[in-house]
Amino acid sequence: MRRFLLQNFLCSLIFLLFVSCKTYQLTDVKPIPNSEKTVENLFFSSNKDYVYKCQMEVYGNDISGILIIKKISDSTHRIVMTTDFGNKMIDFEISENDFKLNYVLPDLDKKMVINFLKNDFQELLRKNYSVNESFQDNLSYIFTSKMGNKIYYLRKNSNNKLLSQIVVTKNKKEKIDFNFEAKTPTFAEKIEIQHKDFKISIKLFQITETE
Would the pTM of this model clear 0.70, i.e. be above it? Predict the structure, then answer.
């Protein structure tokens, strides 16, 4: 019995290692000429406040509240999350290369949580992507952008040309998916952030509209 259980465990471990090592690949796409040299994420480019209902799941722990994202300079945004009753939970300023933590609730003051929020919002707020390759499928235009050991796959809806997804891969492995539902280039009504190798997800739902 012990030998049987050990064999099952080893098989499961090998399967998990195989799945986790699987590279991210586009399917059912055809290459097209690079019509765009740069893809921009303009969802947070307005100077008005972006206000969302936020639902976070971190390893089975649910956190919900109101999330406010405000552009305070050309390169920096301020992000504040409060409870539904207005009590501040976290407050930080972030740019592509800098991060300043102004306040965090003691229950959230964990290095892992802070690092995930920093990395996720740096990726979410990244504006410019240089295009390396372009593809097309039945629904989207797909553009790849290489930055160091990361490759970004950016999808634009072929009908309205709005950004609908960003897939972040590292060393060719899928790490984070950003999915957007939008009607204008500068505001996404719904955003979902899903980690592929950690049990962490963030969902943002529109409360107030900008432009």
Answer: yes
